[in-house]
Every structure is written in C-alpha cells, then in structure tokens.
Specification:
This protein is mainly β and about 70 residues long. It has strands spanning about 15-20, 25-30, 45-55, 60-65. It has a four-stranded antiparallel beta sheet, with no helix packed on it. The radius of gyration is 14 Å and the shape is globular. The N and C termini lie far apart (about 40 Å).
Length: about 70
C-alpha cells in the first residue's frame, strides 16, 4: 500500500552510538537514508551498544548492536 505520510522531508539525519553506560562513543551527521551506510565500530571494545538514528523531523530508530572485536 502506498504511504500517506504527510511528514516533511528529511533533510538531516544523525547517527549516534552509545555504550552500556550511556556515553556517546560515535556520532556522524548527514547520513543519507537512500542507500546502505556502513559504520566501522571495530575500534570499540567488545560489548553491546545502542545505535540511534534520528532525523530532523523528530523521527528516530534505535537498535542494539554487538561489537565482537572480530575483523
């Protein structure tokens, strides 16, 4: 079904990654949502992190990610 979302177009998107203490360990502005975007987090210690993608139209998406330290 077609989307009838009347939200304004997204012009800016920010990606943030937080560790288990809530400290921000990565931030990148200007993420293009039209394609695939890779983030190299291999430099971070092994553990579970929260990835948050937020747009300027107040929509956000969060995902738990695991950094295993394996390259």
């Amino acid at each position: 079904f077609p989307s009838h979302d009347n939200s304004p177009p997204v012009t800016s998107t920010r990606l943030r990654v937080y560790d288990f203490t809530g400290a921000e360990v990565f931030v990148q502005d200007g993420i293009d949502l039209k394609g695939m975007y890779k983030v190299d987090l291999s430099y971070l210690p092994k553990g579970v992190y929260l990835l948050q993608l937020a747009s300027d139209n107040n929509k956000s998406y969060s995902k738990k990610v695991v950094v295993s330290g394996v390259h």
